[in-house]
Amino acid sequence: MQNFRSIREKVTLDFRATSDKHQEEYFVVDIPKPRMRILKIAMIYGANASGKTSILLALDFLRKLVIQPQQDKNAAIGIPAFARENHKTSFFELGFWYKDIVYNYQLSILQNAIQSEELFYYPKGKRAEVFIRKLTPGKGYEYHWNEKLFKKSTRDVLELTIQNQTILARIASIEDSSPLQDAHDWFRFKLQPILLPNMSLLRYTNELLINQGTNQKAIKQFLLDLLSRADLWINDIDVNEEVVDASDVPVNMPVHFLNPPKPNAKPTFIKYDFGFVHKLDNESYTLDMKEESMGTQRFYGLGAILLSLIRGRVTMPIDEIESSLHNDLLFHFIAMFLRNSRQGQLIFTSHNTALLNEKAITRRDCIWITDRKSDGSTELTPVSDYPVRKEHAIDSLYRKGLLGGKPNLGSNEL
Fold it and tell me: Is 307 helix (H, G, I), strand (E, B) or coil?
């Protein structure tokens, strides 16, 4: 990515594993064609305002461009370029693996127009073009298509894509089964929206709990097992249903539509209330989930995230993953992900340096450091680029400033 928020010059987050064999069976997924070893996790450290979140937001920006397309050709794309580079092009390149095929997607944006867009894929491991779209001054857009993949009628419709919309977004409105549709589907179904530290995760798990139909018991048992392992003294999850008028439903409350609206009649909903059942000294009591500690709420909310990583094999960006969590609980969550997920991928930022010395959940090539350069922009470096050996305590090296990513603080005397 380049020219996005604090990122001025090109930076690259690379998931290709080094030759390190540490915890290989848990950290690395083998892609056969073209042959690659891909890490399931990336953890990003750095001082405040060094650009950690910008990297996750760049992924989220691309996701929204693809699944939330512009309909008005005059609408602003709204790209947050580097503070002094609004007049320059922003560039993104993303490689991903979906349905056993590797894709490479490139996008350039200047102000409110797509300047170029390219998609390549690797059927049987060999690079092949899907399409290329470039804006030429005075001529408009020029297209180059892999004609084996698209009918002329499809190409004609795609070439009507407006200047502030991507081809990947446009394909969603057309009947298609080409690699272009598959690339769109990866953004839609596999790349998840960013989870921010101040975001409540209760609704993710609660909606999962009530929307699973015949799987509801299995989902509930998974969550109870998770809470039991976390030593939160929770014995059961209580779900109450109540039929209410639409006007009485609180904001963000999980609901199911019950009766179709009729003339002059109010629609009704099933409103769900959730609580945790605690059993202490042979007595039981139920607390509303929102009365529980922030750590309990956060860990329960992460239950749905863990299930998506394990079963849905999604790519999940989390900003400040340690938010409200005890160190041991955080280690436990990451370890469960690594040991139970086959192809899910976790990308997170953190200030919790204790993670860095937990060899069961870290490798040198999965740790990245952001630094501020002299112009205020972001620099991104993997720990594997430093002469760090297996016996070194990475957390100690980081705290001493030997890996960068530490703030240069002034005197503490006021």
Answer: helix
Domain boundaries, the chain: 1-192+315-321+340-409, 199-313
Percentages helix, strand, coil for the chain (3-state, rounded to 5) are 30, 30, 40
∠ CA(349), CA(350), CA(356), 5° rounding? 115
Angle formed at CA 315 by CA 309 and CA 317, multiple of 5 degrees: 105
CB atoms within 10 A of CB 137: 5
In this predicted structure, the answer to whether residue 212 has a pLDDT above a threshold of 90 is no
The CA distances from residue 183 to 77, 106, 118, 170, in Å, are: 21, 12, 12, 12
- Nearest one of 345, 377, 349 to 98, comparing CA atoms: 345
User: Mapping DSSP to helix (H, G, I), strand (E, B) and coil, where does residue 102 land?
Assistant: strand
Kindly state the percentage of the chain with pLDDT values over 90: 67
Of 201-205, 231-235, 246-250, 383-387, the poorest mean pLDDT is in 246-250
Nearest to 46 by CA among 394, 348, 371: 371
The pTM score is 0.91
